Amino acid sequence: MSILLTMIPIALVYATPIVIAALGGLYSERSGIVNIALEGIMMVGAFTAAAVTAVLEPSTTWAAYYGIAAGIVAGMIFSLLHAFASVNLKADQVVSGTALNILAGGLTVYLCQIFFDQQRTNAFTTGLAKVSVPGLKGIPFLGPVLFMDVYSTTYAAILLVLLTWFVVYKTPFGLRMRSCGEHPQAAASMGINVLAMRYTGVIISGALAGLAGGAMVLTQDIQYTLGSIHGTGFIALACLIFGKWNPFGVLGAGLFFGFSQALSIYAKDIAFLQKVPLDFFYMLPYVLTVIALVVFSGKSVGPKAAGELYDAGKR
Amino acid sequence: MKKNFVRAFCAFALASVAFAGSTKVGFVTDVGGIDDKSFNQSTWEGIKRFGQENNLTQGKEIKYLQSTAEADYVPNLSTLADEGMDLVVASGFLFESSMGEVAGKYPKQKFLIIDSVVKDKAGKTLPNVANAVFAEHEGSFLVGVAAGLKAKADKKNMVGFVGGMQFPLIEKFQAGFEQGVHAVNPGCKVLVDYAGTFSDPGKGQALAAKQYGAGAYIVFQAAGGTGNGVIKEAKERTQKGDVRWAIGVDKDQYNDGVYAPGKSAVLTSMMKRVDVAAHDVSAMVRDGKFPGGEVLVFSLKNKGVSIPGTNPNLPADITKKIAEYEAQIASGKLKVSEVPAKQ
Q1: Would you place residue B94 in the very low, low, confident or very high pLDDT band (cuts 50, 70, 90)?
Q2: A151 interfacial to chain B (CB closer than 8 Å)
Q3: CA-based nearest residue in chain A for residue B165
Q4: What is the pLDDT of residues A46-69, one digit of tens each?
Q5: Which residue in A has a C-alpha nearest to residue B198's C-alpha?
Q6: Domains identified in chain A, total number
Q7: Could you tell me if residue A40 is inside a domain?
Q8: Does A238 touch chain B (CB under 8 A)?
Q9: What single string gives the DSSP state of each residue in A17-81?
Q10: What is the DSSP-derived secondary structure letter of residue A131?
Q11: Fold of B2-134+274-298
Q12: B137-271+313-330 — its CATH code?
């Protein structure tokens, strides 16, 4: 039991960037644009956040938050490329997303080379540090697990889940956005500007993926390197499908993945798991993700028009 | 007959001119680039030092080619061989297959691979490739001594080791570290975890959090990018007043551990001196003693592994003790095992 309690904070650290990036994917796909560029946008966000933090840290204690903000802006700007290619140029969205993923690796290393004269950013001194919530951390059982030594980005992720649910399901904007992802021609006939809606969806996804990248590098790493994101954007994409394009589903899928990672870290210390080779636990998170995708894919219904070119004349 | 004699004489004359001229050394980087603050940069520094000692011109007699993709390795190695370099150097196991291929095509060209061994299909080394490897267990022993003494001085009784992947090379780090800790602090517990990856800082951080949480005071990471997460966790805890240390690997990682001006959470580092390997083998080529086909071990004895020259976090009595052990291992009086003791 005590091992389970110590696993929770680790699972939360892992789940945070996945959930935030997957929420980004949700906005984009709900508006009708498939965004497999989450990984690339996270890299750009992570690079920007790490670079800004490293540069500002000597002069301000809020450097990490400026870094996160810069990461969000960079993610939005970078995602514009995807929006432009897939909305204006009517490019294949998967190809455009792949291009962004490839571009991000080269671009960030190139910029590191220009600014820092090496293949990575300088090491920042603190990045984001864990916080404790005074008062709440005294709650028995839950306090030490959820309110002591947690990164503020984890709370941001949970708030974003609630906010996303509200925006997507309870506001006129959300309804319009979903309609663009389901049947854009019908939405257009009701006077909704489909192109503007899709631009908005992609830019929000850029902001969230940029935030996810910044959160990841500032909480887990000491600098941005080419390996800092190492596939988390793709895991987020899987969580989006696994979570059925629903904010709470995404949260559940992200936590599930976080826990399977934490399990791989603690398996060695759990008596009845010690006989199993360690390699099994290394692959466990990925195997579980694949299994979950296979089991749930039949029932997971994504936005109908996601990935399709918008042709206003189509009936 | 006479013709042959003249030919041989000419060849000899030409060879001696080349010999008297200079020793040309070429270096091919991996995708990390020449200024990666790691193996590539270090190797090039070793070659540059050799160049300075022998008055060689950079860009002519000593030069490097950068690889931007793995596909560049073979063409870059071949280019330097075509240019008639006396020695072509590359660093890291990434070059194992490409150097094997190129060395087969240029049997007269001398090659050096650092931190790896090139073998043919029959498992034999190639006669024109020198292989430089390191006695990681000996350097790890020294940082183990540092950890053991530091823990003892601060009344702590547990340290930890986080490895990248579990295979014999990384187990050498673990074995040396454990022996070093126990040599000076027999009762000290050593936690051991392997991350299964060299490129996941999040996992390194989680493993460090687990070990520090269990009471480990100092964690030695031999895990590449994964190790960055270990350093991050040590920094964060120390900043909050819960003092913990990390130990760096391959190069001096003191700067990576800086959390406030003049303060670093990196206690010391286990350095592989790839620059020493590059420099020394270049000198052997100059002296006509190229160790082709041999596997050279760079150990404490020939300064191939070491701790950094300055360790601001180690008190003088500990560095003195480390120097004593270093001398004992270098002289062969103390043997360090490469294999971890069975648990």
Answers
A1: confident
A2: no
A3: A279
A4: 999 999 999 999 999 999 999 999
A5: A227
A6: 1
A7: yes
A8: no
A9: HHHHHHHHHHHHHHTT---TTHHHHHHHHHHHHHHHHHHHTTT-TTHHHHHHHHHHHHHHHHHHH
A10: B
A11: Rossmann fold (3.40.50)
A12: 3.40.50.2300
